[in-house]
Design brief:
The complex is a heterotrimer of chains A (83), B (466) and C (372). Chain A has 83 residues and is an all-alpha fold. Chain A is built from 3 helices and no strands. In chain A, helix 1 packs across helix 2 and helix 1 packs across helix 3. Chain B folds into 3 domains: 234 residues, no CATH class; 72 residues; 137 residues, no CATH class. Helix content of chain B is 73%, strand content 0%. The chains are: A mainly alpha (83), B mainly alpha (466), C alpha/beta (372).
Chain lengths: 83, 466, 372
């Protein structure tokens, strides 16, 4: 899976399942955590989704804006974990 | 901390930051000294020695428990042991020099000192020999938590000292309350390393790195609570300081001083307290004093972070931010992303996330999970400030607030499918900010007034029922 | 981009700071004159005072005895004088200030409640200018300052205790005004006044650094103004044990044995004379304030814990005689009130006591308000 594919999968998941706004497009560089777009509960949901979908585990201590804040950063984290 | 302390801190930070060799050990030596230096008045004078001694002992033992063999090699650690031992020795020797202007001597009894070192070395040796297991780590973590709870329960502390008096056969005297300076922060740093050790995520840290992390002097009294793996990177290779960084560090330090000693200390005089709740009859004045309290606690607390961040930066270490304009946030969730950030991150990492993960894999409704996890986390954050009913209520206030806000956002999001126009968004944010600030301010009533009953009384006065 | 040189920034800051300090010491700006009181917040009914630091917050106050401007600017005294107003300033100790009493219960409050008028129809408005210390030299310094606020009459309550040479007070009350104290002592030949311990502030004491304590207090006095404005309270009313009708058998007056009082040589009666002259042409009415007279055990030895009978009687004779010889207006109220009208000390009065005291002063005030 390419980074672009990961980003679009994540973007779709966030818009539909977390934000409940299917029509919404999320920019690859848009801040997700620091902006408050994704709250801490949804963040865990996202982590579980990442684990199920891409087989990359994000630890409890990593769910914060320091580890990743945008889809690009998350996608590269996923790529590095899958390798 | 006084101006004198902070002045010395600034000079030490500049000095340590400029060192080419021995920087880490110099920092260690100064942090150990500060640990002794800042000790407040204690019920027994000698506690001013024993508390920092015990702090160091606990840190060293937890290090021995969690450090991998390669980090425990004698070759790497004997200078550290020597430096710590040397500083403690110098502090002990001050009973002969009597440089009381620098450090008020608290002379420990010689036999107790010998016994303490004996106990320390035996426990240390035992830990050195046994296998470093998760179970052992869990036991140690429980021990630290136990001390923490004891220290945070004033009734227990008072009772224990009365009990000690009765053991010694003396009448209970009025004395300064026992306090373990910095333990709230140190304990949570240690617990974080223990949890990460159990999860096999803790990087290999030498004794010097570990102790430096735990008692880093700029952050020793009031945080922030950094993460070990982040801190140690910059401890090993300090971030270079360009001239703008110097200016930025100085700016943070000076702003911190101003916020603490001018703004917060003045606001302290006119912040809501028991006296005002009893004496003020007009709700308008009471609201004013409530808002002033909200400002005061922000300025006071964030000032310490500013000072710590400025000092650390001079030494090439970038401490994490602890506050990010919390009162300008449009909702409570974002407020808690911007208030005492390092503490909330800690609770998220070690309580909220694991709990959410565990509950998420079970067949439980989402709102129920959110309710339980938010409320539980906020209650614990409340109790972190002190094991007392008022802090618990403060936690519940915010836990419920977060839950309600979460449900509201969820509902609103499904209703509003098209993005708001910029003007409407601005309006919504302004309204949200207003509501959030007021909600948080009302919450401070539980935090600052000694009993929940008084807080409720104040609330009814604020809304004109009285 | 311009590069910043930290060392130059530091040097410039230090030089600038030094200059500001020197300029402050040189010009000695009247910082105390700037006040939020009587403008953003209502003026206080009396000068800020609280004995215990830990009660400053509960009392919404902070005493600023280093700056008489700041002290008076925070009170109603600093309000502009109305054309139809006849201003009366009360000087004295804690009983004049109104210890344990709400402003409306004090002597000043009770006098104002009487709604007095002068013969010319002016409103007689009484202001509390007292500071709680029994020390006539302090009163003189206050009288000197209070003249700036256009008084028409001074009331000055005194008692034997206040005429003692209180070197213990000089340091914190007189030192900041050492130059003025010395000038007054010279001008009015206050030869009895013990000025050995008086310390004149140096030039360095006058810098910003030297004055930081005073400046901080002036600032905090403004901040406490909000608490005062919101609560209408300027004092934390604590309960004290009531006075006992019994007194100790000791017959000394602060360790002075009978016959050794030396009123003429050691006591500060010439400060009274200085007050009259300094205030002129404004008249001064000196009042010997009421004292508690014990009725129980040892009351034949002492009037109260402050005064053995012999000492107070000696003082009373002396003062009355002095007033007669010098032909001053004078009210003696020493035995005006029954023991029940005193609270925690032999001087502090109940509201009813204040009322009675006010009524006693009424004809004298009216007399002085109507020049022949």
């Amino acid at each position: 899976m390419t980074t672009e594919e990961i980003i679009s999968t994540l973007s779709k998941q966030i818009a539909e399942k977390i934000l409940k706004q299917p029509g919404r497009a999320i920019g690859a560089e848009e801040p997700l955590i620091s902006s408050g777009l994704i709250d801490s509960f949804s963040l865990m949901d996202l982590a579980l989704f990442v684990e199920d979908t891409f087989g990359a585990r994000i630890e409890d201590t990593e769910l914060n804006a320091n580890t990743f804040d945008s889809l690009t950063q998350l996608a590269s984290l996923i790529q590095s974990r899958r390798a | 901390m006084t101006f004198l302390h902070l002045g010395v801190f600034a000079l030490a930070a500049i000095g340590i930051g400029r060192l080419k060799v021995g920087r880490e050990l110099a920092l260690l030596a100064f942090s150990v000294f500060v640990l002794f230096w800042l000790q407040p008045a204690q019920p027994f004078v000698s506690l001013r020695f024993w508390i920092p001694f015990a702090t160091l002992a606990i840190i060293a033992l937890v290090w021995a428990l969690t450090a991998p063999p390669e980090a425990r090699a004698m070759k790497k650690n004997w200078p550290t042991a020597l430096v710590i031992f040397g500083v403690i020795l110098l502090i002990d020797l001050n009973q002969f020099f009597r440089l009381d202007a620098i450090y008020m001597t608290a002379t420990p009894r010689l036999w107790m000192l010998a016994l303490a070192w004996l106990v320390f070395f035996s426990v240390g040796l035992a830990l050195w020999r046994v296998r470093q297991t998760s179970t052992l780590a869990a036991l140690v973590a429980l021990g630290i938590l136990f001390i923490f709870i004891y220290l945070k329960t004033p009734a227990l502390v008072v009772k224990s000292f009365i009990w000690m008096d009765s053991l010694r056969g003396v009448a209970p005297a009025t004395r300064p309350l026992f306090s373990w300076l910095g333990f709230s922060y140190i304990a949570f740093r240690l617990l974080h390393t223990i949890r990460d050790f159990q999860a096999r995520r803790l990087p290999a840290l030498t004794l010097s790195e570990y102790v430096n992390y735990a008692i880093f002097f700029p952050a020793f009294v009031a945080g922030p609570i950094d993460r070990a793996e982040r801190f140690v990177v910059e401890l090993r290779t300090p971030v270079a300081l360009a001239e703008q960084d110097w200016a930025e560090a100085a700016r943070r330090f000076i702003i911190g001083l101003f916020k603490k000693f001018v703004v917060a200390d003045s606001l302290a005089v006119i912040s809501i307290n028991t006296i005002f709740v009893e004496q003020v009859h007009s709700p308008a004045w009471l609201w004013l004093f409530l808002y002033l309290y909200a400002l005061r606690i922000y300025f006071d607390f964030s000032a310490y972070s500013d000072i710590a961040i400025g000092l650390a930066r001079v030494m090439g270490i970038r401490l994490p931010e602890n506050f990010a304009a919390p009162y300008f946030k449009p909702n409570l969730t974002q407020f808690w992303n911007a208030w005492h950030i390092t503490l909330t991150q800690w609770f998220r990492a070690y309580f909220f996330n694991p709990l959410t993960r565990a509950l998420r894999t079970k067949q439980i409704s989402i709102p129920a999970i959110i309710f339980v996890t938010q409320l539980g986390t906020m209650m614990l954050i409340g109790l972190w400030h002190g094991v007392a009913l008022n802090f618990l209520c403060w936690g519940i206030w915010h836990g419920l607030g977060l839950f309600v806000q979460n449900r509201w956002s969820e509902w609103a999001r499904t209703k509003i499918q098209t993005p708001l126009t910029p003007r409407r968004k601005l309006l919504a944010d302004a309204l949200g900010m207003f509501l959030t600030f007021n909600f948080v301010s009302l919450g401070w009533l539980f935090f600052t007034l000694p009993t929940p009953a008084l807080a409720l009384n104040a609330m009814s006065k604020l809304f004109g029922f009285n | 981009m311009k590069t910043v040189r930290p060392q130059w920034v530091v040097i410039k800051a230090v030089v600038l700071y030094a200059l500001v300090n020197l300029a402050f010491a040189y010009f000695n700006p009247p910082v105390g004159k700037f006040s939020l009181y009587n403008w953003l917040i209502p003026g206080r009914a009396r000068v800020p005072y609280e004995r215990e630091v830990e009660y400053y917050e509960a009392s919404h106050t902070i005493p600023v005895y280093e700056d008489l401007d700041a002290m008076y600017q925070s009170t109603l005294l600093a309000q502009p004088k109305q054309p139809d107003e006849f201003r009366v300033f009360l000087l004295g100790d804690s009983s004049a200030w109104g210890f344990q009493l709400h402003p409306e219960e004090t002597l000043v409050g009770q006098l104002n409640a009487l709604n007095l008028k002068t013969c010319a129809g002016k409103r007689i408005v009484v202001y509390n200018a007292a500071f709680p210390l029994p020390y006539v030299m302090k009163d003189l310094i206050l009288l000197d300052k209070a003249r700036e606020y256009q008084p028409d009459l001074f009331l000055w309550t005194v008692t034997l205790d206040g005429f003692r040479n209180r070197t213990i007070f000089t340091n914190y009350f007189l030192d900041p005004y050492a130059e003025r104290v010395q000038a007054l002592a010279e001008e009015y030949q206050l030869t009895n006044l013990d000025l050995q311990k008086l310390e004149t502030p140096t030039f360095w004491d006058q810098t910003l650094i030297g004055q930081r304590g005073r400046l901080k207090k002036i600032f905090l006095l403004q901040v406490h103004g909000l608490g005062w404005a919101a609560t209408g309270l300027d004092y934390d009313y604590r309960s004290y044990p009531p006075l006992s009708p019994d007194v100790t058998a000791d017959d000394t007056f602060f360790e002075t044995p009978p016959g050794k009082l030396g009123l003429e040589d050691h006591m500060l009666f010439n400060v009274l004379e200085a007050g009259y002259q300094l205030a002129a042409p404004t008249p001064v009415l000196v009042i010997n304030e009421p004292i508690f007279v014990a009725s129980g055990k040892n009351s034949e030895i002492r009037y109260n814990e402050f005064y053995p009978r012999w000492a107070y009687d000696e003082y009373l004779t002396y003062l009355q005689n002095w007033m007669r010889v010098n032909q001053h207006d004078y009210v003696d109220a020493w035995n005006l009130l029954p023991p029940a009208e005193f609270t925690d000390t032999p001087f502090h009065r109940t509201p009813a006591g204040e009322r009675k005291f006010a009524e006693l002063l009424l004809p004298q005030i009216q007399k002085l308000a109507c020049p022949k």
